[in-house]
Amino acid sequence: MGHIRPIVPIHHIHHIHPIHHMGHIRPTVHTEGIFLILVITDRIMKALFYSINGIGLGHLSRTSAIAKQMIDDGGADIKFFTKSDFNLFLEDMGVPFVKSPPVGIGDDSEAFIHLVNEYLPKVIIYDNFFPHGGLLYANSRGIRNVLILRNKKKGFIEKELSDYGDVYAKFDLFVVTEDGLKDRLPESVLERSIFTGPIIRESVRDNNVAKRYGIKEDDFVVCFTCGGGSNSKRLPVFNAVKGAWEELKGKIDGLKFIVLRGPFSGDFPESEGIIVKEFEKDMTGLLAHCDIVISHAGYNTVNEIILSKKPSILIPVDSKDDCQLDRAMNVEKTGIGWCLKEPDSKHIASLVKEFHDKPRVREGIRKAFESINVVPGNKEVSDAILRLLKEERDVLKLGKSCNNNCVCCEELGNKIGIEK
């Protein structure tokens, strides 16, 4: 474990919490009453991801893609704090995770502080959302904090930065992964920002994708993906997609409909001839075999579709912060797809049929894609975080002497004046 040299008489120390997996501990201990402060220099490159999804998988998908790149690039030691009940990404990578208690986003500071004090990361990465108390605690301990930002509805980010500018000032690095934000961020944020391409979960290169779905070379494949989450529009969209299938049956040779309903979206209405799956790990691999995609306009899915250079029919979902409508309208404006503000089976069917029947439509979309060059930002983000991890930096561990040898987070937070 290393050596710890107390700077106060040893009889003033009730006990010291055991610290596991330490590369090196700089020998300093402070006490204030029964509280202990250990100054730790950890040579193990430990990064903690705060990846809290509300109803979908977007945050977990993005952060797990970054984590995989970091592991591949530099052998970082990684742990996740997540609320999601669908942790296939993490299990596939063998990355340990701690489940958040069933509370609202941002109301989990106490559990998060406990994990931070136990794991002692050198860097914490938050995807869009973060617990204010947890961030302030980590900053007070000398931990680097990184916030990943994507575009949101006009006024949302501006209000956040205005209301909580002192909290956002605690971040060491902002990673901006979507166009449209640069002109909306203040200089105080811009000077600590890097601008990268989108974070996209890479294909697992499953050569059996076509075989698993029974896709033949002359099939015309329509894929509907609902993303990871549940939302109020799912049933009307499900019914519209089923209705489009009924409209198109017998009108397109080799027509094949594939539905990825998402792990939290409930059952798709039964319909003979439609292949329904809960989830596809190799999404970009499947898209490579599709002709056209129907989807909501979430950040991850739209970027996967564009990277795969497939035309799309996008049905945006309204939310308080995400700008799905703007994203879908931008796809339509660019000439690589269509935006439907409401799910309509006849409209969906007519667009699919038009794309299938008219070579000039297909050629127009192909040419539009030629002007788009998507370079995933996974590597650039990984490099930036690894640079922070490699810095020599002290991390403070605050402990409390108690009967259970644990960190009593609520009292600890009150002691150092941090709101949860």
Describe the 3D structure.
With 420 residues, the chain is of the alpha/beta class. The chain is 35% helix and 18% strand. The chain has 16 helices and 16 strands. It has helices spanning 58-74, 88-93, 109-119, 132-140, 156-163, 165-168, 187-190, 209-213, 234-248, 283-287, 299-307, 324-334, 345-357, 359-370, 378-390, 409-415, and strands at 29-32, 35-40, 46-51, 77-82, 97-99, 123-127, 144-149, 173-176, 193-195, 220-225, 255-260, 274-277, 292-295, 312-314, 337-339, 395-400. Strands 5-4-3-6-7-8-9 form a seven-stranded parallel beta sheet, sandwiched between helices. Helix 9 (234-248) links the parallel strand 10 and strand 11 (255-260). Helix 1 (58-74) packs across helix 15 (378-390), helix 3 packs parallel to helix 4 and helix 9 (234-248) packs across helix 13 (345-357). The longest helix has 17 residues, at 58-74. It is elongated.
SSE arrangement:
Blueprint: E1 29-32, E2 35-40, E3 46-51, H1 58-74, E4 77-82, H2 88-93, E5 97-99, H3 109-119, E6 123-127, H4 132-140, E7 144-149, H5 156-163, H6 165-168, E8 173-176, H7 187-190, E9 193-195, H8 209-213, E10 220-225, H9 234-248, E11 255-260, E12 274-277, H10 283-287, E13 292-295, H11 299-307, E14 312-314, H12 324-334, E15 337-339, H13 345-357, H14 359-370, H15 378-390, E16 395-400, H16 409-415
Parallel strand pairs: 3-4, 3-6, 4-5, 6-7, 7-8, 8-9, 10-11, 10-13, 11-12, 13-14, 14-15
Antiparallel strand pairs: 1-2, 2-16
Helix pairs in contact: 1-15, 3-4, 9-13
